[in-house]
Amino acid sequence: RAPAPPAPAWFPQGTAESFAQLEIKTNNAAPILNREDYVPGTYKLSGTGITTAEGALDIRGRGNSTWDWPKKPYRIKLANATALAGMPSSKHWVLLANYADKTLMRNDMAFTLSRQMGMAYTVRDQYVEVTLNGEYRGLYQLAEHIRIAKDRVDVPELKVGDTAADKVSGGYLMEVDFRMHKDYCKDHSVWPYSPFCAGEVNTQRDTTFCVDSKRGMQPACLKEPETLLTPEWAAQRAYIEKYMGDFEAALFSADFKDPANGYAKYVDVDSVIDYYILNELTKNVDGTESSFFMYKKRDGKLHFGPVWDFDLALGNAGYNNVQFTSGWHIRNAPWFTRLFEDPAFAKKVKDRWQALKASGKFEQMLQYAQARATWLTKGQQKNFAKWPIFNWSDWFTRVVMGSYDGEVNEMLRWQAERYAWMDAELSK
Question: ∠ CA(134), CA(140), CA(141), 5° rounding?
């Protein structure tokens, strides 16, 4: 093997001596009790090389199973749109705890590869040490919230009056999510931990407009406009339901390979291919079941992305066969299974893979992880002194290596093997 090329200048350099500090104080030190109710307070973000930002905020819990763990993830709404740590201005931010990911960097790796692949609207993020009401809570990822906005998912913001043919076609932001399935809450085993269920009633489904698949995919639910269920949005509701139905019908029609009238009439194929490659390479257990975002521009096709939620990817989860470095995962989902029945699509995937491989993007990802692990040294040591979980796992995680280096090395081993398997398959 040729020696690895020198690390690019944008890689994490050396070992970070300090991390950005995010101090949050809730009014009267009120506890943050759940994922529904925002608690008012103030924040201050400061650190070497970043502009200090401070002001009022509202904060609540977020996440699904992740909310039940002691290191909590949060959703933040600032009183005023603010640029944080060099990221474009917004009121809306997310704090990822990465509790189940003991490398603390699976999300960072996936977002970085997404950016390197040129995927549109990739989430930006920054590591921060969080102090809540005077208590150190650990090393977090401060990340952009996926939403429609100029510096986020930059598609037109649909308004109630946009019912004419030239306006009603966009923009839409959707998330495919198994928890929004009509029968999700009929499974009583999910009740103890799901905020979606009041008995067998899916309360989220009652307030969110979703388009159900006729082909076994999970529902595609509208993130924005989020009020699409109300009567005045009837035209937009009818439009996006018909568009998604037409896309799926075309995909499963006899003429599905036809570039003019098949699936390619409705979906941006390049975005599908990049979404596929990144989620298949990382064998992301959530890649087609939840956190699967899609957006639609005005007068434009459906796009897959931005990518999100990789804490259980890269060999971390231990179910649905994603623990194994061999075998397909994403292409087992009905839409992708069908797409691969089109030889032209399969060839495009191979061609894109070979182009990314030739550009060094995949090897660079492993190099990047090693550089990031070194950079995180002091931050992860402090984090795991607070949360000593190297000998812990939950039912859906498989890795217990006993140390940070062990966790990182196991992830690198898994990812190198996964890459080798996929490369062999896509080089045939």
Answer: 140
Domain limits, the chain: 172-358
Amino acid found at 237: R
DSSP helix/strand/coil, 145: coil
Query: What phi and psi, each to the nearest 5 degrees, are found at residue 127?
Result: -75, 135
Point out the least confidently predicted range of 151-155, 190-194, 311-315.
190-194
In this prediction, residues 396-402 reach a mean pLDDT of 88
The rounded percent of the chain whose pLDDT value lies above 90 is 90
> Alpha-carbon distance 25 to 135, whole Å?
10
- Do 90 and 97 touch, CB atoms closer than 8 A? no
In tens, the pLDDT along 113-155 reads: 999 999 999 999 999 999 999 999 999 999 999 999 999 999 9
Instruction: Report which of 4, 42, 11, 46 is spatially closest to residue 26, judged by C-alpha positions.
Output: 42
Distance (Å, rounded) from C-alpha 323 to C-alpha 18? 34
Q: How far apart are CA 112 and CA 361, in angstroms?
A: 10
Contacts for 307 with CB less than 8 Å, ≥ 6 apart: 110, 111, 114, 119, 122, 123, 275, 278, 279, 293
- Which tokens is 264 given? 């390619």
C-alpha dist (Å) from residue 8 to 11, 36, 212, 365:
6, 42, 44, 11
- CA-atom Rg of the chain in angstroms: 22
Ranges assigned E (strand) in 253-313: 292-296, 302-304
**pLDDT tens digits for 209-227?**
999 999 999 999 999 998 8
Report pLDDT digits (tens) over 60-88. Answer: 999 877 888 999 999 999 999 999 999 99
Residue 318 contacts by C-beta under 8 Å, 6 or more apart in sequence? 393, 396, 397, 398, 399
- How many residues are there in the chain? 428
Beta-strand (E) ranges in 83-134? 90-96, 125-132
CB 217 within 8 A of CB 176: yes
Rounded to an integer, what distance in angstroms lies between the CA atom of residue 130 and that of residue 138? 6
Give the torsion sign (CA, 404, 312, 351, 294).
negative
Q: Where do we find the tokens 């977020």?
A: 62
